[in-house]
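Box 3.1 A note on notation
Throughout this textbook, protein chains are presented in two layers. The first layer is the amino acid sequence; the second is a token string describing backbone geometry. Keep the layers aligned when reading.
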Amino acid sequence: MSRPWRMLADDGAGAADGLALDEALMARYARGEPDRPPTLRLYTYASHCALIGRYQNLEAEVDLGACQRTGTAVSRRPTGGGAIIMGSGQLGVAYLTRAPAGRRPREIIEELAGAVAAGLAGLGITAVFRGKNDLEAGGRKIAGLGLYVDPAGGMLFHASILADLDIPFMLEVLRIPAAKLADKAAAAVAERVTTVTRETGQPADGAALRPAIAAGFAAAFGAALQPGQPAAALAADRYRAPAWLADRSMSADGSGSAVLKTPAGLARLYLTTHGDLVKNAIVVGDFNELPPALVELESGLRWRRLDEDSVAEAVTRSGADTALGVPAGQIAAALLSAGRQARARGAAEPVRAAGSCYFPEQQGA
């Protein structure tokens, strides 16, 4: 029988301290260290912390002035993915072990996503793995996932599970394209994300999810969980250091938009780009409801090249032309126009990188 996993539970972690402990735990699994069973840490952050992904631009993702006004701590995760808000309303998951040989990151993330989904199933929520690093319930994102393997061979898997979410606060401190929509911003986010509270109809915070998520990992891997005590981490200063926070601040990302009149309503298309790649796409409008085909279009555009054939293929495959009642070529032309605007702005100055955790991402594989 395999040895029990070590399970750690803590609440109210600071932005730097919470990430530093994950790094310290990962170091235990470096090549040359004693063979150990995995560690599962289920924890919450102090309300509130803004955490950006490893490869994001700090100033583009976070409104630092708003963070200062609201007392929101800021740090950068070692794992990829988008900017997120963490606090008592979200459960953080850190799974640590030695990186398995010969396995692709996507395969690992998908397997560990299954464990998180098993935990949510215990709460009566059906969640499925979508894209590269999302769990969705009813077509809306309920958890974001990320992975990092350090040069010494240790592996860290991160998940952020939305027990609840203060959308207006999130829009205040994170720089999200939907914030440009003013009074429609909260609705635009709500169309794309969900929470345990929303899905179950019962108020929940991050700590309340811990037993179910622990049970999901235990069931998915046939593992026994043995409680342990978190230790103080010595790497916290790294996660507070300006050099770490600003590591990607000169990445040349851009944002652009276009307007498209359609029988279904006035559509606004927002793109963020990195070079000639689409990093994030959002389609909103004065629709009676958001057509599922537009969500498919958003997902299908991510990480595609901004060229006519590739964009046209994404439009046709999504069925957005049928949903909006306009030719696919017209939609593609509007998207390419937004893309050209984004590329021009990105060349002039760094704008924002990929969308936040609250818009489904396909990053990190």
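The CA atoms of residues 61 and 124 lie 33 Å apart. The longest helix spans residues 328-348.
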